Amino acid sequence: MRISDYLLYAFRGLSERKGRSAGAAVGVAIAVTALILALGLGESFQRAFSETLGRTLAANSIIVTNTAPGLTDADLLLLGSLPRVENVFGVATVQALVTTASGYRSITILAVDPAHLPDLLGLGNVGEFVEEGTSEPKGLGVVIGANIWMDQSTGSRLHDVGEALTARVGGKDVKLVISGLAKPYGFRTWISIDDSVFMDPEAFFTYVSGRRVYQAVILTLDDPSMVQTVVDEVRALAPPRSNVFSPVAMVAQLGMFVNSLGAFLAFISVLSVGITALWIFDSTAISVVQRVKEIGILKAVGFSSTDVLLIFLSEAALVSLIGGTAGLLLSVTASRFITIPLFVIRLTPSLSPQILTVAIAAPLVANLAAAAVPARAAARLDPVKALRYE
Amino acid sequence: MSIVEVRDLWREYTIGREKVYALRGVTVEIEKGEFLAVVGPSGSGKSTLLHLIGGLDRPTQGVIKVGNVEVNSLKSDRELSKFRNEYVGFVFQMFHLVPRLTAVENVELPLIARGVEAGERRRAALEALKLVGLQHRASHKPTEMSGGEQQRVAIARAIVTQPKLLLADEPTGNLDSANSKLVMELFKKLIDDMGVTIVMATHNLELLEYCDRAVRLVDGRVAGVYQKGEYGKLFSK
To answer: What is the interface pTM, i.e. ipTM, of the complex?
Structure first.
């Protein structure tokens, strides 16, 4: 018998019991979709961590925030003196309003020593930060975030290097000069880079804020494995109402969330695969009972037991492939709508060839195994008894 | 020249603890192109003999030769199914067509088992349907056909592989006399045109007029062999 004939004959068998076949195919589609999304999200997170988060969120850093009363230079010195702390710098922020074509928009003025910008942004060098102009703000010259100089909906440019920018801070106007345009960046733990204006700290404390305090202090350690120990020490030393955290711990928590979501989807997938396999077993068993006489006819005209076995297995394989294809299309569509924002990136399920292969193969193998039991019974039928079966 | 040789054939079944003998040492030879009738009461072993000759069942003891093939020596399912496909065509009382397939698709089945390419087997199946006068019913399903037509489709399926032997088990058992006559004339035509050998199990002694010879079975044993012209003796049994 030819392979094409197995499939053709199997298709005719399935089309005779459309309801049961369609139900089984829907089960496979759900299983494949859940499996692809579960594996895809897991892989996407692993890749995001290794390629993006691991780089941008330094594994050896600790962030201390304190919006009121803020952190002083004395706090910086104290925290910087802790063992294992290699580097420490402060970040001062204030909320401001700038004029746009449609009125005022809220921004954050962010003051940080240009030497520490790469540490803050998780970049190799500060040159990677800007699209145009200088990357180091000096005096009243500022680097503005992408959401400020670029229209977010159309992508058109709203500001250029050299233009004046008036920021209203606490009821007074501060005249700034745009010296650089930052590249689109995204979120980074506790600040929105794209909605910020970067300013020289000395100018910030002179023209914008009357108080020399920082809203955040960032510490980098010489040994990433000591992060949790140092976090505990910093919590003991930091002023009241300070918030101490490490990006690695946050990523780990998010990783747990993503993994839990993946595990939930995997559970649904395993459940669907199991239910579908049971369905296939039941459907094939009923089909064998209903077609005993037909099996006798096939054997009488020269079909071997192996042919009969393969006909019933082909039916299970066809259901799996039809359901698998539907699940694949469903996953591709669903993956466009499923996004989990994670700092600078948005996680979408990865649809790698390996994942797609596993997602198609797993229900196929399970269904073939389920169909094998009644299919073997069909193959072993005595043709004489089968022909006399009523 | 004999095409079928059956020697001391036994078939024993075990039902519960009891042994039941369907055939007890049957010996018979069938000539090429012969139309042999196997007659006898119900349970005499007619169907069992046909099943054993056709490789559908395996004997407990004895020798069955069809052409050069010693059927009783075929052990594997693969060998037996190949033998059935190449040497034998079956025609049954209940027609045994697959209800969801059309007439031509039913006729194609033995060629599918043989692995014949789709176009070639469709041509052969239509040719076989033409031979039984049903080419115009090729796309009809069994439920859309009369009993006589269904049996002719079954005959087309049996001859599509051009077998050496046609085994017909009560082929007219479900047909009226007009259709029975049609089937018998078709069998004669197949013998004349294709040189096929036919072994037919039947209760209907009226059909013997079409046959060359009759073997009477009683309780699994050969109770008599009757040549043409001797059938009158059977009516008195």
So the answer is: 0.93
